[in-house]
Amino acid sequence: MKKLKELSLSDIDRIIEMAWEDRTPFDAILSQFGISEGETIQLMRLHMKKSSFKMWRTRVQGRSTKHNKKAPDDLLTFKSRMQKGIAMNKVSKR
Q1: Mapped to the 3 state alphabet, what secondary structure does 4-51 carry?
Q2: Helix, strand, or coil here: 60?
Q3: Which residues contact 29 (CB under 8 A, 6 or more apart)?
């Protein structure tokens, strides 16, 4: 829980966005922010409406792409197409 208190609002927004993305596994959140799957779930519970959290949990529980061990072999990247200009959670300078 201590890690969650140290996050900025922009980091929390990005973690929530990554958690909603279908092809971004929890391991990507762990590598970028040091937040485990359980801590991500805890963060989502704290920062979302109850109904939104329930909808997200239902959606994520059966999704193989959110867990690298369950992901298909042809899924080689955890970056979404929308993340094109972002590297390690920093917007690249043009």
Answers
A1: HHCCCHHHHHHHHHHHHCCCCCHHHHHHHHCCCHHHHHHHHHHHCCHH
A2: helix
A3: 15, 18, 19, 35, 37, 40
Considering all CA atoms of the chain, what is the largest pairwise distance in Å, rounded to the nearest integer? 39
Q: Which contiguous run of DSSP H or E holds residue 53?
A: helix 50-61
Beta carbons of 38 and 30 less than 8 angstroms apart: no
The model's pTM: 0.66
Q: Domain segments of the chain: what residues?
A: 2-91
* Confidence tier at 42 by pLDDT (50, 70, 90): very high
Q: How far, in whole angstroms, is CA 15 from its chain's centroid?
A: 5
**Gap between the Cα atoms of 45 and 94, Å rounded:** 36
Answer yes or no: are the C-beta atoms of 89 and 33 closer than 8 Å: yes
